[in-house]
Write a structure and sequence with these properties.
25% strand, globular, 12 strands, Glucose Oxidase, domain 1, single chain, alpha/beta
């Protein structure tokens, strides 16, 4: 029997956002349509939606520029359908703005019950329970981040995709300087996710299908975990 977990964050007013110059999401009704005699219909305008709105999928072109790498439209949908996956749930971290952000360590990754199950070409998702802060105004400035050693550990596993439920992977005040290593390894980025803590299987499958936007390295996506 299959268990399917929707790990896509909701796109709605008040959700987390990267801040300026990224616009905030506002969903409003479509005004009356003149060519329908002034009728209103069940349709909405999604203001402020950008390539990194909510849960998204990203190629290395985000770092290198659209002219210097492949775009999201170059990634066939079947490549991100039912990708073998390992979810490493390192804990349920609570927000503590006084204490500061938690740095995810190699030791925490290795302590996961299924860390030894990772295979080359997998998707690796790291769960911290942060999805429950999706609508919290301090989602980013309180979020867990990856220490350099932890990210290099993940990269060394040679995955196809790395994702997490935290949106701010680095620490802006004390940068961990791992993004060049990440992008040069030609790994897709996915997330941030919600409900990763509900995945308990040692191995599962990940489907992450981005909206078919052109001329971009990343776009909002729907993501599912499938446990057999």
């Amino acid at each position: 029997m299959r268990k399917i977990i929707d790990i896509t964050g909701a796109i709605d007013d008040g959700m987390w956002n990267y801040g300026e110059p990224f616009p905030e999401v506002h969903i409003r009704p479509l005004p009356p349509i003149a060519w329908l005699g002034g009728r209103t219909v069940g349709a909405e305008i999604f203001e402020g939606v950008h390539s990194q709105t909510g849960t998204y999928l990203e190629t290395p072109a985000h770092n290198y520029g659209n002219e210097n790498s492949y775009l999201l439209s170059d990634v066939p949908a079947e490549k991100t359908y039912e990708v073998p996956c390992v979810v490493l749930n390192v804990g349920m971290f609570d927000m503590d703005l006084e204490k500061g952000r938690h740095g995810i360590t190699v030791q925490e990754l290795e302590a996961c019950h299924n860390a030894s199950c990772i295979q080359e070409g997998d998707a690796i998702l790291v769960g911290t329970g942060w999805g429950r802060y999706w609508f919290d105004p301090h989602n980013l400035d309180g979020a867990p981040y990856f220490t350099r050693e932890a990210m290099l550990w993940l990269i060394e596993k040679k995955p196809f995709i790395i994702g997490a439920d935290t949106a701010r992977w680095d620490h802006l005040e004390t940068p961990q300087n791992f993004f060049e290593d990440f992008y040069s390894a030609n790994i897709l980025m996915a997330g941030p996710f919600v409900r990763l803590e509900e995945c308990t299987a040692k191995r599962c499958k990940l489907t992450v299908l981005a909206a078919n936007f052109m001329h971009t390295s990343c776009a909002p996506a729907r993501a599912l975990i499938i446990e057999e």
